[in-house]
């Protein structure tokens, strides 16, 4: 339920196409729906402009499928991050013959995301660029790409353009220059966001990844490096949090 859907429902009641009782039935699960094991926040799109997103890690396939199907019944796009193929099979089974209104249910394997995209309108004012330092950082970058796309943004990505071969990044200066927000995913020493930040005049959201040898401490070294960036337009999210970076980038882009 978002502002457009709520406005449409009120207009249908006013015109007599929907009875007041039917409207109440549609709204009965606002602001949230208690499933016994989870409280599904159907009100979030009204508050934030974006619906609730499911964090799949640690959830049983049955629980994730139940939450996903309840969100799907309320319309709009649905996203589950950190999801497995087993969870996807449970979601597909739970949705069954539910009309998806020309939407497509997919498992984005590289991003580990389950997506149901029905609203393809563009809400972002510009392009969000997603940059990965190395090929090993791509899964985190792909989580950011999928999230930003489902939230109504035009997205471009640049992969494997880290500081070990900085000429690869500089070959794409035009892409960086056209972006309204840039997400940079990097492991190892986490230097790439500072480099990108020094090249552009837009917000750069740094995502430390858990890629690197022992002293990288599973992304802690990259996180500390990014937090100490001398580029003033760089902000940092948590380790491997491509979703969080894309969410903030989407808000900036609106």
SSE order and pairing:
Layout: H1 3-15, H2 20-27, E1 32-34, E2 39-41, H3 44-48, E3 54-55, H4 61-73, E4 78-81, H5 85-95, E5 104-108, E6 113-117, E7 127-132, H6 138-150, E8 154-158, H7 167-170, H8 173-178, E9 179-186, H9 192-197, E10 204-208, H10 220-227, E11 234-236, H11 242-253
Parallel strand pairs: 3-4, 7-8, 7-9, 9-10, 10-11
Antiparallel strand pairs: 1-2, 4-6, 5-6
Task: Describe the overall structure.
With 254 residues, the protein is α/β, with parallel strands linked by helices. It folds into two domains: 30-117, no CATH class; 127-253, 3-Layer(aba) Sandwich (Rossmann fold), CATH 3.40.50. The protein is built from eleven helices and eleven strands. The chain has a five-stranded parallel beta sheet with strand order 8-7-9-10-11. The radius of gyration is 20 Å and the shape is globular.
Order of helices and strands: HHEEHEHEHEEEHEHHEHEHEH
Helix content: 25-40%
* Discrete helix count: 11
Largest sheet: 5 strands, parallel
Task: Provide the spatial order of strands within the biggest beta sheet.
Answer: 8-7-9-10-11
Shape: globular
Features:
5-stranded parallel beta sheet, 39% helix, single chain, globular, 2 domains, 254 residues, Rossmann fold, alpha/beta
